[in-house]
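Researcher: First entry.
Model:
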Amino acid sequence: MIEILNLASWVSLSLGGIFCLIGGLGLLRMPDFFTRLHAASVIETLGAGLLILGMLFQSGLSLTSVKLIFILLLIFFASPTATHALARAAKVKGIKYFHKKEGEND
């Protein structure tokens, strides 16, 4: 049973790290604010969620796991709200979307 928990923890932590790296690369490569906001939301939801899940597998049933669950719930509810508020504020401020025209190269 312990081997299964260690394997599940390893897989969750590895996938969480991979999603964080992909999201970080997306933050650097994306052309405008709104697409960068999408890349940041990948880090917040998938990356952080899988990392916390891996830590939950490692902590077992303890006070630490309760704290990790509260952190996961906070991220689950606060991240979409914050992302929506940022996107709305950018739209109100007048930040333009990036539109690539046909035939235009990178």
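Researcher: Second entry.
Model:
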Amino acid sequence: LLQRNLQDKIPPPFAIGITALLFGLSHYPYTAFMLVTMVIGAVWGWLYYRSRSLIFVTFAHWLLGLVALG
């Protein structure tokens, strides 16, 4: 939702980068995990930008969580 609102004000690549950074920071204090989730957040941001649907991003997040915890 933040990305969509930012995209109305700034170019999409910057909106994706900002939201990916915030997504990575939300996994503080695990530095390596923060970096990985920032990259994954950028991929999911791009996926959202291309599809305009949270369904794919939500499913990808759920699936990755399932694999990571499985």
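Model: Note on the second entry: The mean pLDDT is 93.
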